[in-house]
Amino acid sequence: MIKRASYIKTAPEAVKAFASGANYLENSSIEHKLRYLVQLRVSQINGCAYCVDLHTNQLRKEGETQQRIDCLVVWREVPFYDERERAALGWAESVTLIKDTHAPDSAYEIVSTQFSENNLITCFSDFRTYRFC
User: Fold this and answer.
1) What is the 3-state secondary structure (H, E, C) of 28-40?
2) What is the DSSP letter of 2?
């Protein structure tokens, strides 16, 4: 196995900046369960095993059901995600897959009916961060 760079040793200020952003998001008005659900979906798309495990465990600690965690990959096909969750998941997928989706106005229209402008910016910051998993 190739030895990889240590982010903390090589770029401690970058890690500190990332942690600061994470603290901001953690203390935002967006519900933790919703944030973790979106983070899990983005991590699934990105294929990041570490992040999938992290967000799955966060969701379990928040009391999320195993059924909803298991079915997240097919969230459009099942009835147990509410409109707010569907809007956030749709926007997260559009932003994460922007090369293919171009983040269409239709997805933005849906998410903007469920979230304030401030929450949209917070959500976008969160999605953008997890695109790099």
Assistant:
1) CCCCHHHHHHHHH
2) P
Overall pTM > 0.70: yes
Answer positive or negative: Cα dihedral of 51, 52, 54, 58: positive
Q: How far is CA 21 from CA 7, 13, 59, 72, 111, in A?
A: 16, 12, 20, 25, 22
List domains and CATH numbers for the chain: 32-130 (1.20.1290.10)
Q: CA 90 to CA 38: how far, in whole Å?
A: 9
- Summarize pLDDT for 113-130 with one digit per residue, the tens: 999 998 888 777 766 565
Closest to 130 measured CA to CA, from 36, 24, 57:
36
Which DSSP string corresponds to the chain?
-PPPP-HHHH-HHHHHHHHHHHHHHHTSSS-HHHHHHHHHHHHHHHT-HHHHHHHHHHHHHTT--HHHHHGGGGGGGSS-S-HHHHHHHHHHHHHHTHHHH---HHHHHHHHTTS-HHHHHHHHHHHHHHTT-
